[in-house]
Design a protein that fits this description.
The protein has ten helices and ten strands. The chain is α/β, with parallel strands linked by helices. It folds into two domains: 166 residues, P-loop containing nucleotide triphosphate hydrolases (Rossmann fold); 81 residues, no CATH class. The strands form two sheets. A six-stranded mixed sheet has the order 6-7-8-3-9-10, with helices on both faces. The chain binds adenosine-5'-triphosphate. GO terms for molecular function: ATP binding.
């Protein structure tokens, strides 16, 4: 496929006797929002972990920028433009919104001791650049948060914390954003609001590709352009929301799970 930004071929991930990804083939296209679906334990998070370099695949390739990323470090993959959020919050609650978001750009920061001690003016200028950049990002994503930049994250609601996590991932100006169940633990209304924010970001950052793991079907229907469904680590369906929900294999995978 010519507009594929990421090409996954024959990807397999085994944990001892368990095959979490089984000869997976999929493409992530430039600028799309791709939904990654599947019953619990079907391999969705494992795919994110392999793609971001946390796990090394047992076999297969993931081609990005013409190179296979398998075997690269998480830092290298992150620097090349792949950012993610996690199912469980990774925010540091006593730190401010600013601190938590700026950590997302750690790899681009000048942070050597010599720089901090002897180049005070440059340090100050960099700090001010970051304040501006964080304000700008929050301005796109959630304007009310701009005025609360220096408040500790622990004083924020769940939805605002999720917004802060997404902004942290966006701070590195990724080309691919991986969102692992962003609606987890939120109410229906909060989920709806967060998706509005994500759509807003998409409309401003046109080239950004997003892969969304999500169990809420109405979220998937609303914000994805294409979906891939996994079951036992294999791709069982691919297409628009309407296509995959009409697919008998998908229905069996989900109903089978309910019946179990
Ligand atoms: N580090 C690991 N060691 C051993 N087994 C693992 C590890 N990580 C994942 N697995 C197993 O791999 C399978 C796929 O898990 P994964 O978390 O990728 O599923 P998932 O589709 O993201 O599920 P959920 O929707 O519940 O988050 C599961 O059987 C899981 O127990």
């Amino acid at each position: 496929m010519s507009d594929a930004m990421i090409e996954v071929r024959n990807l397999t991930m085994r944990f001892g006797g368990l095959t979490a990804l089984d000869n997976l083939q999929l493409d992530i296209r430039r600028g799309e929002v791709l939904g990654l679906l599947g019953p619990n334990g079907s391999g969705k998070t494992t795919f994110f972990n392999v793609l971001t370099g946390l796990y090394k695949a047992s076999a297969g390739t993931i081609t990005y920028n013409g190179e296979n990323v398998i075997g690269k470090t998480p830092q290298d993959i992150y620097r090349s433009g792949v950012a993610r959020t996690f199912q469980r919050s990774r925010l540091s609650l006593p730190l401010t919104v600013f601190d938590n978001i700026v950590i997302g750009d750690y790899q681009h920061m000048q942070h050597g001791l010599v720089f901090n001690l002897f180049r005070r003016q440059a340090f100050r200028a960099e700090y001010e650049r970051y304040v501006e950049a964080v304000r700008e990002l929050l301005g796109i994503f959630s304007p009310p948060l701009v005025n609360r930049l220096f408040e500790p994250v622990e004083s924020f609601t769940m939805i605002d914390r999720r917004r802060i996590e997404v902004c942290r991932a966006l701070m590195s100006r990724p080309r691919l954003l991986l969102l692992d169940e962003p609606s987890a633990g939120m109410t229906h209304d909060e989920t709806h609001e967060l998706m509005d924010d994500i759509l807003q970001v998409r409309s401003q950052l046109k080239d950004l590709s997003v892969v969304l793991i999500e169990h809420e079907m109405n979220v998937i229907e609303r914000i994805t352009e294409r979906c891939v469904v996994l079951n036992y680590g294999k791709k069982i369906a691919e297409g628009t929301y309407a296509e995959i929900t009409a697919d008998p294999d998908v229905q069996t995978a989900y109903l089978g799970e309910e019946a179990a």
